[in-house]
Amino acid sequence: MGMQGGGMNKLTRKPEDWENRPLTLTTLKRLLRYVFAHKWLMILALLLTIASNLLALAGPYYSGLAIDQIKPGDMRMDLVFYYAAWMAVCFVVSAVFSYILQRLMILISRKVIFRMRSDVFNKLTELPVGYFDTHQTGDILSRISYDIDTISTSLSTDVVQILASVITVVGALIMMLEISPILVLVFAFTVPLSIFATKFITTRTRPLFRKRSAELGELNGFVEEMVSGQKTLKAYNQEANTIDKLDDRNHEAVTAYYKAEYYGGITGPTVGFINNLSLSLVSFFGALLYLQGGIGIGQISSFVLYSRKFSGPINEVANIIGELQSVFSAAERVFRLLDEEVELPDVPDALDIDAEGDVELKDVSFGYEKGNTILKNLNVKAPRGSLIAIVGPTGAGKTTLINLLMRFYDTDSGEITMDGHPIRSLQRRSLRRNYSMVLQDTWLFHGTVFDNIAYGKENATREEVEAACKAAGIHNYIQNLPQGYDTVLNDDGTNISKGQKQLMTIARAMLIDARLLILDEATSNVDTRTEIQIQKAMRRLMSDKTCFVIAHRLSTIRNADLILVVKDGQVVEQGTHDSLMAENGFYAEMFNAQFS
């Protein structure tokens, strides 16, 4: 349903609240909350990580022992092979544990992403209509697909790598201290330098990754709009213009992606250079210690191997940090959606009623934006079983009135009642259950004709569906389809005409046993003769039910019990068709204009 009068900013968190929010512990904690929901699998993963890395750390120790057995004139080859065999066993078992760990993390990642995607989709069902009026569909889809996939990739690889790196660095440091505390002093210089370089770079690249995610979301939104509007695009020969617009947005997205990856990629090589510098210093000072008799050849060999294990993970973590910037930016967009304000909860002891159909609006005023009031002190009475037609120029507030009746939005002032109960005192599910609705924008899903029409009524029978279709004047058309009511419709019913889609949605509304009916330009896609037939059929089917009809073709509402003429947010005239024509006012002017 389109929104008139601008966006509804009060329902969404201000963008700057997130833009200025640091991507640090808050985002990480929320991600880890998803991960540690599977604590037993994570404990097993942690044990495997510890075992794998401890075995990998034992390899250099046995390597040093093997080298120490190689002495001029006293070579113990049996011990060399013995220590070498143990070294090989450690490395093989470590590799097996690493493989099991990787498979386990993929399983955990799958569970986490399933939960996160479910949370996002469930959140979408709780958000007010205003959120979808102010956010591109493509951008929302980008958060569900691209952003969550980015998080998934990181969870299955980076989390394991970080855990392994921490254990490896700590274990390697302990072993190096055992071999030569003096040589460890080399890292007292290089490690702080690595930390400083990493922090310096990531602080400047973080906004780039934010921008990359935002640009990709906007690009997806633009592409989704253009794909869904292909017919209009081609009809107005806008292919070249659209390609130019896509090129501009694509260039912005690619540029943002390039800058984020380029500057984020500097971290790894920079830390790698510092780590290689540390190895050079270790080799230099190790040689001096050896000449002074302070360390043996085997110990130098083990120390160098441990220094590689110490500096290697630091370099890998530095590379991962670049990826984590992308992950945090994606997670931020997902959590931003999860933090959006849902529809206001029902009041305590909200009523669940089966309405009789009496609706009244008392001094209702409303505007989508503060200071821009669309409906002003509106008063309307709709007795049970009446047909209320709402007419007026574009932007007068007709659709806004329907939004308020369904509580897609709440009034700024005044009150709407159903059977004497203020609708704020009713459960939203109860309120909306008492309405059936047909909109100008048809919506059909991939499934059979029967499933689409029976969508709003659980356990609907074939006879009930056929009766509704006969009343809507589409039964014969469905019977002539290849599989009749079992014919499968494509996404959004693209394999049938727009008029037939509209008739199916009307039949869907007829099937629901609701006391109130809303038709928002519902017959705009059918010809006038069919529209009149539908109106007659609906009057028979919806007897004793209250109907609200928004119509532009005034000839189709001649038989309405009450016609409300809305102009500039106010009901300027009301009455039957004949009485309004007799007044020769605004309604008569609109009616005559359609036939002049």
* CATH-derived topology of the largest domain: ABC transporter transmembrane region fold
Oligomeric state as shown: single chain
Strand order, largest beta sheet: 6-9-10-3-11-12
**Overall morphology:** elongated
Gyration radius over CA: 35 Å
**Total beta strand runs:** 12
Folded structure, characterized:
The chain has 596 residues and is α/β, with parallel strands linked by helices. It has two domains: 304 residues, ABC transporter transmembrane region fold, CATH 1.20.1560.10; 237 residues, P-loop containing nucleotide triphosphate hydrolases (Rossmann fold, 3-Layer(aba) Sandwich), CATH 3.40.50.300. 62% of the residues lie in helices and 10% in strands. It has 21 helices and twelve strands. The protein has a six-stranded mixed beta sheet with strand order 6-9-10-3-11-12, sandwiched between helices. Strand 9, helix 19 and strand 10 form a beta-alpha-beta unit. Helix 3 runs antiparallel to helix 4, helix 3 runs antiparallel to helix 12 and helix 8 runs parallel beside helix 12. The chain is elongated and about 120 Å long. The two termini are 31 Å apart. 35% of the residues are buried.
Blueprint (SSEs and pairs):
Blueprint: H1 15-19, H2 25-35, H3 39-68, H4 77-126, H5 129-133, H6 137-179, H7 181-184, H8 187-228, H9 230-235, H10 239-264, H11 267-291, H12 297-338, E1 359-366, E2 375-382, E3 387-391, H13 398-405, E4 413-418, E5 421-422, H14 428-433, E6 435-438, E7 447-448, H15 449-453, H16 462-472, H17 475-479, E8 488-489, H18 498-511, E9 516-520, H19 528-541, E10 546-550, E11 562-567, E12 570-575, H20 577-583, H21 586-595
Parallel strand pairs: 3-10, 3-11, 6-9, 9-10
Antiparallel strand pairs: 1-2, 1-4, 4-5, 7-8, 11-12
Helix pairs in contact: 2-12, 3-4, 3-6, 3-12, 4-6, 6-8, 6-12, 8-10, 8-11, 8-12, 11-12, 16-18
